[in-house]
Write a structure and sequence with these properties.
- By secondary structure, the chain is of the alpha+beta class.
- It is built from 11 helices and 29 strands.
- The strands form 8 sheets. Strands 23, 25, 26, 27, 28 and 29 form a 6-stranded mixed beta sheet that branches. A 5-stranded mixed beta sheet has the order 6-12-11-8-9, with no helix packed on it. Strands 14, 16, 19, 20 and 21 form a 5-stranded mixed beta sheet that branches.
- Strand 19 and strand 20 form a beta hairpin.
- Helix 1 packs antiparallel against helix 9, helix 4 runs antiparallel to helix 6 and helix 7 packs antiparallel against helix 9.
Length: 533
């Protein structure tokens, strides 16, 4: 089990089961077991809070559907289908809890039950450990726990299908939260989920576990509701201020090329399209309702143009919004700029976008001083390609890179342009991280769960990778200082032994951290100092 990835719910269940069974095996007093009533009360309060939060979302669905049934209506229908299924499973679990308590108390009118509400503190035979097994496990897999497992699985798959494959993160969260897979018991043998959960579990333990499942049901409901509501991004949209916007592809064009601009209203509704006119000409619209204006100038100099945008208002009247814009027309010139920043970094490819207005890209040639040029695509920290068809890798630091551009015109004549210079800087050092941290505090459980030390460079534009090649773990206690070294990014067995000795308030130091960057040069990283909380 030590190497299996357990969900938080599974970890909680395992811990609770071990503690409860240990208490019973050691004949711990009823008062100690009775303390688990507080666990159940806390879980019940959590469920109530989820219900209140979810009800607010359902009210928001009602408002959104009332304002725009076309956009919000389908999502409201799906949301209330989720509510129906969640309530159904929740009530089924609540009935199981009531049945267990009444059977254990041997009293249909026990004061612990009022309608469908349970007061766990009123249960007298809370440590009875036969009834939950008889009802939930049963014999020959006939217990109601198997029906519960099937209901949870059906609910989970229903929620996942509601997401329609559009939110993989939420789907994985649902699979973890509502997991009912069989697992290994303490003897290392596979055992059904129902047995692991409820076999020989006392009444107070069984009700607490069932309450936790109810929390998971409401939590999963919240997850899907938030996703559905987020899909109604425009369902409650209202026009309160409309502004005419003009976005040109370029404010400066040359003779022989087109001036192209997009004209649109800043607040739009896809259910209706505006009418945009320039003089006597009505502009064509793209799929988002933006007007496309294109003209080929015949002379150089400043140019101005304008028109009117007409839009049907909510009251049925037509409102008009005049707009105007200007642009300049000049002789052909070269444009060269780095698409990431105004410097280049040594040892890595830097994206470069080069164009000459009025010249086809295949007629452009580039030469670089203090660097090499290639057509490699460079990615940013999000994994997306930078704009630009070229990449420059500087050859030396403390020396500027020169980009020299030339082009060939229609007659075959080569035109050379003044060089562009870029400063060269070294790539910043990364930070070493352990458990996602390099300072402050860390819980003991998080520390011992780590597998190694990693190097990251936060807030850097490029997608660069560093590999940790070695580090030393230092731990001090009253017995002295203990150090263990690793020659990779992974913790060694002896280092893990040191981590196992961590106690609250002690300091964990990871030092002598070495890493290799994309330029394959070794770097020393600052130490990590963490206090165990």
């Amino acid at each position: 089990m030590a190497h299996e990835k357990l969900s938080p719910r599974q970890k909680m269940i395992g811990m609770m089961y071990l503690v409860l069974t240990a208490m019973l095996a050691l004949n711990v007093s009823k008062e100690a077991v009775k303390a688990f009533m507080q666990v159940d009360k806390g879980l019940t309060l959590t469920v109530d809070n989820y219900v209140k939060k979810n009800n607010l979302v359902y009210e928001a669905f009602d408002r959104a559907a009332a304002e725009n049934p076309t956009k919000a209506g389908p999502y409201k229908t799906k949301a209330f289908a989720v509510k129906e299924r969640a309530d159904e499973l929740y009530n089924f679990i609540q009935d199981l809890k009531i049945e267990i308590i009444k059977t254990a108390e041997r009293d249909e009118n026990t004061p612990a039950i009022t309608g469908t509400t349970i007061d766990i503190t009123q249960v007298k035979r809370f440590d009875e450990n036969n009834v939950p097994s008889e009802i939930l496990v049963g014999s020959n897999e006939a217990g109601k726990g198997y029906a519960l497992k099937a209901a949870i699985n059906d609910y989970r798959e229903f929620l996942i299908s509601t997401l329609e494959g559009k939110n993989p993160t939420a789907e994985e969260a649902l699979r973890q939260t509502l997991n009912t897979d069989d697992a290994k018991n303490e003897d290392g043998e596979m055992e059904p989920w129902v047995n692991l959960m409820f076999q020989t579990m006392p009444v107070v333990g069984a009700t607490a576990l069932l309450s936790k499942i109810q929390v998971d049901v409401r939590n999963a409901e919240t997850e899907v509701l938030n996703y559905l509501y987020g899909q109604i991004d425009a369902s409650s949209f209202k026009f309160n201020k409309l502004s005419a916007i003009v976005i040109p592809d370029a404010n400066y064009v040359t003779l022989g090329s087109n001036y192209t601009a997009r004209v649109f209203i800043s607040a739009t509704d896809t259910t209706q399209q505006p009418i945009i006119t320039v003089g006597e000409q009505q502009l064509p619209l793209d799929e988002t309702g933006k007007g496309i204006y294109s003209v080929r100038p015949s002379t150089t100099g400043a140019k101005s143009w304008g028109g009117v945008i007409s839009l049907k208002a909510p009251d049925g009247t037509t409102r008009t919004y005049p707009f105007s814009a200007s642009y300049g027309v000049g002789e052909p010139n070269v444009i060269c700029s780095p698409t990431a920043m105004n410097v280049m970094y040594y040892g890595i490819p830097n994206p470069l976008d080069v164009s000459v207005p009025g010249v086809s890209p295949d007629k452009i040639k580039i030469r670089v001083v203090n660097g090499t040029i290639s057509t490699e695509r460079v990615k940013n920290s999000k994994g997306e390609n930078f704009r630009g068809s070229w990449a420059v890798r500087p050859s030396a630091e403390r020396q500027n890179v020169q980009v020299i551009v030339s082009s060939t015109d229609a007659s075959g004549k080569t035109i050379s342009y003044a060089p562009y210079e870029f400063r060269v800087k070294p790539v910043p050092k990364p930070e070493a991280r352990f458990g996602g941290k390099n300072s402050g505090t860390i819980s003991r459980n998080l520390a011992v769960a780590q597998q190694g030390v990693f190097a990251v460079l936060p807030d850097f534009d490029f997608d660069l990778q560093w590999s940790v090649t070695g580090f030393t773990v230092l731990y001090s206690d009253r017995m002295g200082d203990f150090e263990e070294k690793s020659s990779s990014s992974n913790l060694t067995a002896r280092q893990k032994e040191l981590l196992g000795r961590l106690t609250k308030g002690k300091y964990l130091t990871i030092k002598d951290i070495k890493a290799l960057g994309p330029d394959k040069k070794p770097v020393d990283l600052s130490p990590i100092i963490l206090q165990i909380e």
